[in-house]
Amino acid sequence: AQSVTQPDIHITVSEGASLELRCNYSYGATPYLFWYVQSPGQGLQLLLKYFSGDTLVQGIKGFEAEFKRSQSSFNLRKPSVHWSDAAEYFCAVGGRAAGNKLTFGGGTRVLVKP
Amino acid sequence: DVKVTQSSRYLVKRTGEKVFLECVQDMDHENMFWYRQDPGLGLRLIYFSYDVKMKEKGDIPEGYSVSREKKERFSLILESASTNQTSMYLCASSRTSGSYHEQYFGPGTRLTVT
Lengths: 114, 114
Prior knowledge:
The complex is a heterodimer.
Chain A: E1 3-5, E2 10-14, E3 19-21, E4 24-26, E5 32-38, E6 45-50, E7 56-58, E8 64-68, E9 73-78, E10 87-94, E11 103-104, E12 108-113
Parallel strand pairs in A: 2-12
Antiparallel strand pairs in A: 1-4, 3-9, 5-6, 5-10, 7-8, 8-9, 10-11, 10-12
Chain B: E1 4-6, E2 10-13, E3 19-25, E4 31-38, E5 42-51, E6 54-57, E7 64-70, E8 73-78, E9 87-94, E10 104-105, E11 109-113
């Protein structure tokens, strides 16, 4: 069965500092990987996705993520955080073997200090 | 843009009441999903549907049922609401082909059962 682990429940970062959110997945075949962001009181918005090809993918709002197959990881990064990046971030995995379903991690809540 | 709407943003119901949560998508997606979101647990799949009148149980279907009579609409039903069903409920939709299972989410319904 597929699974996703986000080891950090909360992260606090200063505005302007860099941010890295960790995601480790378990999936028996080629994974489809996603990062979603949820602002307070809102639904989930897709930040970026990886299916194949270049292992460094660019997303919206200045985010990027790197797929490392050997480490089963798909970490999310942003070089300089803005106050509006305060939100909850979810990593998800899917793939052909999973049908149309995604499995989500527990989420990481990011707090941004002024 | 894909739009997924949910009938209520906030709902308060009493224990034992029958509760209907409605979800509508406007992009002719084949697949629709219901998740519940609880702190630290991420998103857990309740039910999903891959076609009209078709449904499959997700990871936590107990206490819930669903209905999909039209392609654009997917309803979640709590037959007899209980306090442990107090949660955020998120609806999502996706295409079957060519999308790598990317899901689009509604804004969520925060349900409180008293």
